[in-house]
UniProtKB/TrEMBL annotation:
GO process annotations (BP): DNA integration
One Pfam match: HTH_21
Taxonomic lineage from the root: Bacteria, Bacillati, Actinomycetota, Actinomycetes, Micrococcales
Protein name: Putative transposase
Domain Integrase catalytic: 128-295
PROSITE patterns the record matches: INTEGRASE (PS50994)
Annotated function: Involved in the transposition of the insertion sequence.
UniProt xrefs under Gene3D superfamilies: Ribonuclease H-like superfamily/Ribonuclease H
SUPFAM superfamilies attached to this UniProt entry: Ribonuclease H-like (SSF53098)
Length: 312
């Protein structure tokens, strides 16, 4: 069809069909005209409608963010009441050239302090929790900017996958993860939640074994837990959060001129991560939805609204 449409004004339909037939591509002029005048099939009409919805969801900064794959886009469409098969979403996204981002190689930033006393590993790679504030994992990473290296630390609640604390700085002293911890404690205190007894799991980096950090954990009744040196699997969930941050924020919104620009982008990403990103590990809910569901099912007292843009 496209070939005939392209050359019909120069050679005419009948001559083109005759030459094509002579070369083994049998097509009659009447067949060409019938196909040209035939109305669109129900499938092609539906494909156009769904493709438009897919594109809208995929590029929405508060939903697909331009990084969601077919599985997440399909789930988001279902939330909008759009009944469509997952294989259809996969097929149409291929046609549209839309694809989710994939995480690349991870880099290790852990610098252990051989002289520091390390708590035991209370997690043993079992990153599961039955309620919020039972287990937090923490880690930090580096991001190159035009004005030098910047660093971002995270505190993540294992139960809901919610990032409850974070901090971006242009250097990585003990203040970096400590500020992220302080945010996490403030967010939970503001929501009226007791964090005493929470296990806070980290790698063996010097920032997490520092005396100031250990004393702050003890002040709130948190239990420190540290994995072995040089083994990323001992803190795999925190490494996953860092990998998602690099893929979904740094790679998409960068490059950044300064640590301040990175901090603003991180703020936007963390808000989306907590409020809008669907997590397969918690049944394709958002972290905020997961915590709201827990408190609705397990408490009768009214819970404050979880988080705000400037905090999470």
């Amino acid at each position: 069809m496209a070939f005939i449409d392209e050359h019909r004004s120069r050679f005419g339909v009948e001559p083109i069909c005759r030459v094509l037939t002579e070369h083994g591509c049998r097509i009659a002029p009447s067949g060409y005209y019938a196909a040209r005048n035939r109305p669109d099939s129900a499938r092609s009409v539906r494909d156009r409608e769904v493709a438009s919805l897919i594109e809208a969801v995929f590029w929405d900064r508060n939903r697909g963010r331009g990084i969601s794959g077919p599985r997440k886009v399909w789930r988001l469409l279902h939330r909008d009441g759009v009944e469509v098969a997952r294989c259809t979403v996969e097929r149409l996204m291929r046609v549209q050239g839309l694809r989710g981002t994939r995480r690349g190689k991870q880099f290790i930033t852990t610098r252990p302090d051989a002289a520091a006393t390390r708590p035991p590993d209370h997690v043993q790679r079992n990153f599961r929790a039955e309620r919020p504030n039972e287990l937090w994992v923490v880690d930090f990473t580096y991001v190159p900017t035009w004005s030098g290296m910047a660093f971002t630390a995270f505190v993540t609640d294992v139960f809901s996958r919610r990032i409850v604390g974070w901090r971006t700085m242009s250097r990585m002293p003990t203040d970096l993860p400590l500020d992220a911890l302080e945010m996490a404690l403030w967010v939970r205190e503001r929501a009226g939640q007791d964090v005493a007894g929470v296990i806070q799991h980290s790698d063996a980096g010097a920032q997490y074994t520092a005396l100031r950090y250990s004393e702050r954990l003890a002040d709130v009744g948190a239990i420190a837990s540290i994995g072995t040196v040089g083994d990323s699997y001992d803190n795999a969930l925190a490494e996953t959060v860092v990998g998602l941050y690099k893929t979904e924020c740094v790679k998409i919104d960068g490059p950044f001129r300064t640590a301040d620009e990175l901090e603003y982008a991180t703020l936007s990403w963390v808000h989306w991560f907590n409020e809008n990103r669907l997590h397969s590990s918690i049944g394709y809910l958002t972290p905020i939805e997961m915590e709201d569901l827990y408190y609705r099912e397990n408490t009768t007292q009214e819970q404050p609204l979880l988080g705000e843009l400037t905090l999470h």
